[in-house]
From TrEMBL:
Belongs to the mandelate racemase/muconate lactonizing enzyme family. Pfam families: MR_MLE_C, MR_MLE_N. Keywords: Isomerase, Magnesium, Metal-binding. Its EC number is 5.1.1.-. PANTHER family: D-GALACTONATE DEHYDRATASE-RELATED, ENOLASE SUPERFAMILY MEMBER DDB_G0284701. Binds 1 Mg(2+) ion per subunit. This is Dipeptide epimerase. It comes from Mesorhizobium marinum. Residues 131-222 form the Mandelate racemase/muconate lactonizing enzyme C-terminal domain. The gene is dgcA.
Amino acid sequence: MNRVLSVSEERFPIAGTFTISRGSKTEAEVVVCSITDGGQAGRGECVPYKRYGETVASVCTQIQAMAAMVADGIGRQDLLEAMPPGAARNAVDCALWDLEAKLSGVRVADSLGIRRPTALETAFTLSLGTPEAMAVQARANADRPLLKVKIGGDGDIARIRAVRDAAPDSRLILDANEGWTEANLQANLAAAAELGVALVEQPLPAGADDLLAHIDRPVQVCADESVHTTDGLERLAGLYDAINIKLDKTGGLTAALDLRDRARAMNLSVMVGCMVGTSLAMAPAVLLAQGADFVDLDGPLLLARDREPGLAYRGSLVSPPGPALWG
């Protein structure tokens, strides 16, 4: 076997500015791994995340280091041992899934036992801003059934109220990105419950999870930064009601499927989320998200332009990928 691995960096402008509690950005920096075998090529996209110590350069180096193993025909299960969880492994793993589908003629959905993958209702994300600015965003998207609201600082209750007033019929997910504290946690959760919020994502810094054991949770609380793989999931089960699975955290679809199944067996709700990337990054996640409790795969909707061909979005519905894109 003589498969050839290549890696490339790409940039896609964001429509406006995307702001969370840790900062803002105006473009999505993505890394694409391609693995060719004969006349077929499989692709996988990842988004390096500074929060986890990743850069575009470091991720490209990690992927390129796998060239010899890929050439020798490494499989996805062995990849779990050869690379640590993270963006780099995600790109390689998803490229292998795509290549296997192209070589065998069997779609990834069929390999997963999904006979008819369906379109999913995805959240649409509102950037962190002043209550007034967030109300403008919410009003412009009030027809969307599910909004994800970036918060995480002083004055969050005013932000939540402003969004709820501007989008009274939308279900709301709050994403604090580790921005709440022990001092404001209880009051913020109470306000979220009062305003009909469906889910609060990662309110506290990863590592401060034990604080959740000592309070009432009037709203479902979801772990994001606190959970990457199945390691440590049992410890979080009594503290959180749900987990957010992202391929760039688990290190690919293979590990994400294991995490999803383990979480369901523990009666945890499942959210499938994403970094800000293109349709190529979302494609495997759409299959992972079949049957999920919450879906947040709006990355391409936040971009000024997506890659072609991309996923088909109709309002807040995202359709499964076609073979020309992935899988």
